[in-house]
Amino acid sequence: MEVLAKYEPVIGLEVHVQLATATKIFCGCATSFGAPPNTNVCPVCLGLPGALPVLSRHSVELAIQAALALNCRVNGRSIFARKNYFYPDLPKGYQISQYDQPLAEHGWVDVEVNGHKKRIGVTRVHMEDDAGKSIHDGFKDSDKYTYVDLNRCGTPLIEVVSEPDMRSGDEAHAYLTEVKQVLQYVGVSTCDMEKGHLRCDANVSVRLKGAEKFGTKAEVKNLNSFRFLKMAVEQEIERQVAILESGGRVMQETRLFNVDTGETVGMRSKEHAHDYRYFPEPDLVPLRVSDAWLKEMRDAAPELPAARRVRFMEVYGLREYDAQVLTATRALGDYFEEAAKAAGDARAAANWVMGDLTAELKEAGKDISESPVSAANLGGLVALIGQGKLSGKLAKEIFPKMFASGESADAIVAREGLSQISDEGALGKIIDEVIAANPKQVEQFRGGKTTVIAFFVGQVMKASRGQADPAAVNRLLREKL
Ligand code: ADP
Ligand code: ZN
Ligand code: MG
Question: What pTM was computed for the model?
Answer without folding.
Answer: 0.81
